[in-house]
């Protein structure tokens, strides 16, 4: 098939499905078709494995000439003048960007209901959320609108929606993928990650987007392997640690049972598992919200009504311009986190809350380091439950924050983790989370592929 046909097929599927799923904030059909024609004229030799394949991008990844909103009124109509590094890389691979995907505003949330523009529905059951904050990315892949998407994961936002939508999502090692051109939420935690239907596609996409980037000084010079080469199916002798905390209080029976069933499969393939402990993970949620909100309050200071997007009208002075712009264009969840972040960093605390959280963060990271002296991977559920009903958790932010407990420790430690589908409960998917050593995404792909 030609690239043009593939592109048309994807656009047709979006036309058919997206009225219900509402994963896309915008599509760029004309540009995509023009690019497809250009690609069709390129010689066959030199085409890589991702050549000509359509991809959707979470709307906090900046795209030159294509509106990028981060699902916020603050950036409504904002057209970036450059491409994110990951966009340069998918272009080099010959992929075709089809559109921009819905998310919680500035990636703050777990349901995609915090988008300023629309609510995305879970393709498995439209009454349920797709998870978040990369809910548009996961739903678009699950609905077959695209086979490839990029999301971002600050505290679980690739893995949890992947689990809720029954697709594969990888949060790479901090520093593996450039954050240049990702609208920053919490800079010490954010990573862009691939969301795909299967493990092989995911491995291909990560190989394409990863690597050292002069525009992001936190990227690593470590060589990027061809992750597909890791998909050997051979996990004989693999040592798995299963944290008691990941199967304990707060984790539903169905999530727990799905993980135990998956462990049986891995055992039958020659792996061994033991119960272990991550003793400091119980503090992870609090630590995550202090650190991520503190960093967000600083990162979001740039939205002042002057440099980007929204600007309040009829103001009498600069002070009022700042105040009205920010109160009119930020949603409540975003405002709440900015206030909490400023409090954590500010005079009342002398920065004490932030500093103390960083110390506990080190303990959380050390828990992982200790386990990885003995185990190759750590396994647990990606989420404590299946997807929530739309509206169910809107007035219950504390439960949502608490439910991040299975994913945020991984971002705090900077290690990689993948979510792969592991069964269903009441017609809704569950995800298995496989956590690895720094820069050892290859082992995660190997295990996920052997299991899937
Ligand atoms: N649910 C978490 C939050 O609300 C994670 C978000 C994310 O990873 N971007 O902050």
From TrEMBL:
Its EC number is 6.3.5.7. Pfam families: Amidase. The keyword Metal-binding does not apply. Keywords: ATP-binding, Ligase, Nucleotide-binding, Protein biosynthesis. GO terms for molecular function: asparaginyl-tRNA synthase (glutamine-hydrolyzing) activity; glutaminyl-tRNA synthase (glutamine-hydrolyzing) activity. It is an enzyme of class 6 (ligase). The keyword Ubl conjugation does not apply. The active site is at residues 58, 133, 157. It catalyses: L-glutamyl-tRNA(Gln) + L-glutamine + ATP + H2O = L-glutaminyl-tRNA(Gln) + L-glutamate + ADP + phosphate + H(+). Residues 5-444 form the Amidase domain. PROSITE patterns: AMIDASES. Belongs to the amidase family. GatA subfamily. PANTHER family: GLUTAMYL-TRNA(GLN) AMIDOTRANSFERASE SUBUNIT A (PTHR11895:SF151), TRANSAMIDASE (PTHR11895). Allows the formation of correctly charged Gln-tRNA(Gln) through the transamidation of misacylated Glu-tRNA(Gln) in organisms which lack glutaminyl-tRNA synthetase. The reaction takes place in the presence of glutamine and ATP through an activated gamma-phospho-Glu-tRNA(Gln). Heterotrimer of A, B and C subunits. NCBIfam families: gatA. This is Glutamyl-tRNA(Gln) amidotransferase subunit A. It comes from Sporosarcina psychrophila.
